[in-house]
Structures are given as C-alpha cells and as structure tokens.
Amino acid sequence: MQIATPNAPPVLSPATLPHLIDALVEQGWYLGEGVLDAGVCAALHAELCDRAKRDALAAAGIGRGNEHALRRDIRGDAIHWLDRESQAQRRYLAAMGELQHALNQALFLGLFEYEAHFAHYPPGAFYRKHLDSFRGRANRVISTVGYLNPDWPEDGGGEMLIFAADDPEREVARVRPAAGNFACFLSETVPHEVLPTRLPRASIAGWFRRNASLGGLVDPAR
Predict the structure, then answer these.
(1) DSSP string of 62-100?
(2) pTM as predicted
(3) Residue 88 is part of a domain; what is its CATH number?
(4) For the chain, what is the domain count?
C-alpha cells in the first residue's frame, strides 16, 4: 500500500494505472508527463543532490557478476540504491508496490520484487543504447524511470530515447527528464538510450523482477 501523509496526494495517481497497463500491452512502453507527485520529486531530488555534493554515489557499471565493468564510454552516471532511509523513498517505493500489484493483477506477470536506484548524470554524461535484461538472467521484466529535475529547460539535453522493439533504429518516443515525468517499458525487448546532458540530471531507475531462482535459491537483486 502507498504510504500516506495527511492530505498528501498519491505519488502515482491510481487514474494513471489503466493507461499505463494498456500502453504496455499495445506498444510495450508508456510515458506519463507530470504524473508523479511534485512534493515527493522535490524531496528525492534534494536527497540525490546532497549525495552528489558529498561524493556519496557509486560509479555505475554495465553487466553484473563477473561481467560487471565500468565503461565511461558507454555509461556515465553515478548511483545509489534506494534503501528506504527517507520518507520520500518509502513513499516512492510504496507507490511502485501498488503498480506491481496492478500489473500482476491485470497481466499475470508474476512480478516478484522491485529494485531501484538514484541515477545522477553530470554534465556531458550519457548512456548508450541498450536493453535492461542480462544475458542468461533475464529476470528484469518491466523497467521504470521517474524524473526529478525541476524547471528542466528545452535545451537541457539528457532525453531518454525509446526505440521500437521490432526495429532498434526507429525512435518511437523521446522523454524529457523533467520532474514528474514517468516512463515504463518492457525490459527485455525495448531498446533505449540517454542522450548527453548539459546539466546535472537526476532520476530513479527501477525494475520489476521475476524470480529467476536456480536450485531452490532465490536469485538476488542487482
């Protein structure tokens, strides 16, 4: 359930859910502009900026396990995994829990859990075109990106490009990283990339996962 505070609106409006689910079924991706609560976005933005100033973020890599590597020519952001240490984080994660329940109920996806991290892109940083699933461990089913940047200018750069699943060269959507915008897409089939940003760029990247356990052991997050 979403964590409520007195007179506080939901982080992600329940009215958004039917449109999001329909879009995932029809085209494999969803983009909602201004659908995240402004107050929660502002609190999360302040938290991430404070971490960036204190150098309390980790350079992001590509791959995982033995294949994990830092490749600044491919990916230039720094991250911090959400750990529920703030009220804003708890509210955001609770909203994603509501979304997970709605997706499972409507689409029978068997989503097992949700993992997410802050992503901070310094000026000039980017992320080359990629998929969010991992070779041999494709347990990330649906990806989400929530944007936190207030007053993002038209020439700020940092847009996320979404490409057609059946034609990775055809752009189908361009997402401005303005606060309140929210994107959701199929992790295994929808290519996407982040264009170079002119300004510090803040977001939360997350994934709904299906349990890919082996030998009775639960596959861990990340």
Answers:
(1) BS-GGG-B--TTTB--EEEE--S-SHHHHHHHHHHHHHH
(2) 0.89
(3) 2.60.120.620
(4) 1
DSSP-assigned letter for residue 125: -
d(CA 195, CA 160): 6
Residue 201 lies in a domain: yes
The per-residue b/e assignment along 120-147, b for 16 or more CB within 10 angstroms, e otherwise, is bbeeebbbeeebbbbeeeebbbbbbbbb
Range of the domain at 150: 14-60+74-210
Q: Would you say residue 2 lies in a domain? A: no
**Residue 139 is encoded by which pair of tokens?**
């347990």
Closest among 137, 74, 88 to 116, alpha carbons compared: 88
Inter-CA distances, 141 with 68, 112, 166, 216, Å: 20, 10, 17, 20
pLDDT tens, position by position, 79-121: 999 999 999 999 999 999 999 999 999 999 999 999 999 999 9
Mean pLDDT, the chain, whole residue set? 90
* 8 Å CB contact between 160 and 144: no
Tokens representing residue 79 in the block:
């991250």
Q: Encode pLDDT of 205-217 as tens digits.
A: 999 998 765 444 4
